[in-house]
Specification:
Number of helices: 4
Strand order of the largest sheet: 4-5-3-2-1-6
Structural class: alpha+beta
Largest sheet: 6 strands, antiparallel
Number of strands: 6
Radius of gyration: 18 Å
Strand content: 15-25%
Distance between the termini: 47 Å
Length: 177
């Protein structure tokens, strides 16, 4: 096994764990959901979220195992590599503002930010709030832990998400949804 299973933050017991064999490459790759803007889940919901402006929307992901998960999406269909420079600059400022707001929630220790991009062609950035005191959830494995944990009490996330959204209009023209 690699070094990772022996980290104190690894979510699985290393006894009996084995690495799956690497499958041979498949080329061309299967298209991602919403490729070319066709049948794009995010485009279909471009007017939905906990915060909206002309270019961006922030959504809350429900049924997660950590206190709060929100996602930032451009309202128009872009992937990260074709995001216009002006929107890229806004994304950077919004990312910092959202992370600050999540970090400021009393029962959240850190905001983890992820952009993965293999499942959907519409660019989206994930923000995970790591619960305070849960140092076992440090680092890159937080999304794995999130899938393993029981659902966090929904009423807490329902109260926290609007708090994050309310910080955005002060920095960006927009409105809580």
């Amino acid at each position: 096994l690699a070094k990772m299973p022996y980290w104190g933050i690894f979510p699985f017991d290393e006894d009996g764990l084995k690495v799956a064999p690497l499958r041979p490459p498949v080329v061309p790759e299967k298209p991602r959901h919403g490729e070319g803007g066709v049948d794009c889940f995010s485009c279909e919901r471009s007017d939905q979220g906990i915060w909206l402006n002309d270019d961006w929307r922030l959504t809350r992901i429900e049924g997660v195992g950590v206190p709060l998960v929100v996602m930032l999406h451009p309202r128009k269909h872009y992937d990260l590599s074709d995001l216009p420079d002006e929107l890229a600059g806004e994304m950077g400022r919004l990312t910092v503002q959202i992370a600050r707001a999540v970090d400021d929630i009393p029962h959240i220790a850190r905001c983890h930010v992820y952009r993965i991009g293999d499942g959907g062609a519409h660019m989206h950035v994930w923000f995970f709030g790591r619960p305070e005191g849960q140092s076992q959830l440090y680092g890159s494995l937080l999304p794995v832990w999130d899938d393993l944990l029981p659902a966090y009490p929904a009423h807490i996330a329902e109260a926290d998400a609007p708090t994050v959204a309310a910080t955005l209009p002060a920095a960006f023209v927009g409105r809580p949804a």
